[in-house]
């Protein structure tokens, strides 16, 4: 297990279906973190500010149905860190989600 970066399309709508209006955006962020933790096998997940703004852009109730994210597994620089790696999730703006698949990003560590 080493540093790697991949781009995913997350179908948020299925994760927040049936969730009350005032909890939809917070739940969406939690589900993105859960998705990244599972995909990268790390418990420490950090969300980029732009991704948070993209989720919240249309308000607490109207979360986007899908979102494209880049998930990077980075080495922890802290000496006293519990985990060797952490996941960093950032937003990737796209015009359309048609035909997009999971892609390994070259030059993963930014």
From TrEMBL:
Alphabetical list of InterPro entries matching this protein: Ribosomal_eL31, Ribosomal_eL31_dom_sf
Q: Which GO CC terms are listed, alphabetically?
A: cytosolic large ribosomal subunit
Single biological process term from Gene Ontology: cytoplasmic translation
Fetch the SUPFAM superfamilies from UniProt: Ribosomal protein L31e
Q: Which residues cross the membrane?
A: none
**CDD domains (alphabetical):** Ribosomal_L31e
Instruction: Print the keywords alphabetically.
Output: Ribonucleoprotein, Ribosomal protein
Q: Which GO terms describe its molecular function?
A: structural constituent of ribosome
The text of the family note is: Belongs to the eukaryotic ribosomal protein eL31 family.
Q: What is this protein called?
A: 60S ribosomal protein L31
Task: State the organism named in the record.
Answer: Monosiga brevicollis (Choanoflagellate)
């Amino acid at each position: 297990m080493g540093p790697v970066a991949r781009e995913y399309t997350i179908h948020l709508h299925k994760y927040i279906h049936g969730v009350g209006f005032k909890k939809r955006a917070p739940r969406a962020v939690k589900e993105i973190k859960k998705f990244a933790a599972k995909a990268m096998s790390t418990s420490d997940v950090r969300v980029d500010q732009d991704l948070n703004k993209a989720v919240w852009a249309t308000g607490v109730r109207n979360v986007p149905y899908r979102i494209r994210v880049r998930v990077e597994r980075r080495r922890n620089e802290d000496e006293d860190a519990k985990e060797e790696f952490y996941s960093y999730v950032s937003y990737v703006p796209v015009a359309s989600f048609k035909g997009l698949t999971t892609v390994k990003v070259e030059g993963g560590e930014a």
